[in-house]
């Protein structure tokens, strides 16, 4: 029997279906349709929902159960990685080159994925979000070379991670650890990592029941935080993460 999904209303401020009604198989599939306006995306993230689809598919919205989450103080780097960082000249910044980060995330080959879910429409949508101050990147550099990074969406005191990449061994790990170092300093307790994979678990990610996740983010997204990310983040030496 074909799956019949709720279709989103034309109004980007219109409500999403209750995430608790998402399908069990495929896990978390909640709704289809709508658009990728910044208003709708912010509405989605604030309610524990995110878009994920491939070229040729309709726009699909997800809220998986369980949800993969980092406690920002709980990111783990291996002993070997920490030893390497003590001798590293890498630096970590934010919002220094959002466009290059999202393009790198889209182009890096990934195991088990024939292509990218960062479609041209998704790329354009998150670039708009960045220009409006809602989407942010973290860049790891070795001199002028971009060796790793990530990007995601910030609402209130909650960061929703979207994708990360490495162009040198450990680049994405340093981006995540650097971001979480700053988020701890800013008293942002959680980072959403969406869907579990073995790599994230080695870095300290946890699997939370969806209900716990939704309850945890509700007060965080309701707070008011407004600042220039690039300035407040500053330049963090990677060796400080060792």
TrEMBL record:
InterPro entries (alphabetical): Acyl_CoA_acyltransferase, Leu/Phe-tRNA_Trfase, Leu/Phe-tRNA_Trfase_C, Leu/Phe-tRNA_Trfase_N
Reactions catalysed, as given in the entry: N-terminal L-lysyl-[protein] + L-leucyl-tRNA(Leu) = N-terminal L-leucyl-L-lysyl-[protein] + tRNA(Leu) + H(+); N-terminal L-arginyl-[protein] + L-leucyl-tRNA(Leu) = N-terminal L-leucyl-L-arginyl-[protein] + tRNA(Leu) + H(+); L-phenylalanyl-tRNA(Phe) + an N-terminal L-alpha-aminoacyl-[protein] = an N-terminal L-phenylalanyl-L-alpha-aminoacyl-[protein] + tRNA(Phe)
Annotated EC: 2.3.2.6
Localization annotation: Cytoplasm
GO molecular function: leucyl-tRNA--protein transferase activity
Top-level EC class as recorded in UniProt: transferase
Entry keywords, A to Z: Acyltransferase, Cytoplasm, Transferase
Annotated stretches, region: Disordered: 1-22
Main location: cytoplasm
Top-level taxon: Bacteria
Classification via HAMAP family: Leu_Phe_trans
Functional note: Functions in the N-end rule pathway of protein degradation where it conjugates Leu, Phe and, less efficiently, Met from aminoacyl-tRNAs to the N-termini of proteins containing an N-terminal arginine or lysine.
Entry similarity comment: Belongs to the L/F-transferase family.
Annotated protein name in UniProt: Leucyl/phenylalanyl-tRNA--protein transferase
Native species: Lysobacter zhanggongensis
């Amino acid at each position: 029997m074909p799956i019949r999904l709720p279709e989103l209303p034309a109004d980007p401020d219109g409500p999403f279906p209750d995430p608790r009604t998402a399908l069990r198989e495929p896990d978390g599939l909640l709704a289809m349709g709508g658009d990728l306006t910044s208003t709708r995306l912010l509405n989605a993230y604030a309610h524990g929902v995110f878009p994920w689809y491939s070229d040729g598919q309709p726009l699909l919205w997800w809220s998986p159960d369980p949800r993969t989450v980092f406690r920002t103080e709980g990111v783990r780097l291996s002993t070997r990685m920490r030893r390497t960082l003590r001798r590293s000249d890498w630096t970590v910044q934010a919002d220094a080159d959002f466009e290059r980060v999202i393009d790198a995330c889209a182009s890096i080959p990934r195991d088990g994925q024939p292509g990218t879910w960062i479609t041209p429409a998704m790329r354009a949508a998150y670039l708009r979000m960045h220009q409006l101050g809602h989407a942010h990147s973290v860049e790891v550099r070795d001199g002028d070379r971009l060796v790793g990074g990530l990007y995601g969406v910030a609402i209130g005191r909650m960061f929703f991670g979207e994708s990360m990449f490495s162009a040198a061994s450990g680049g994405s790990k340093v981006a995540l650890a650097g971001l979480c170092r700053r988020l701890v300093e800013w008293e942002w307790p959680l980072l959403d990592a969406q869907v579990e994979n073995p790599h994230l678990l080695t870095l300290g990610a946890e699997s939370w029941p969806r209900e716990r996740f939704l309850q945890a983010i509700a007060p965080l997204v309701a707070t008011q935080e407004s600042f220039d990310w690039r300035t407040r983040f500053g330049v963090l030496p990677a060796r400080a993460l060792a």
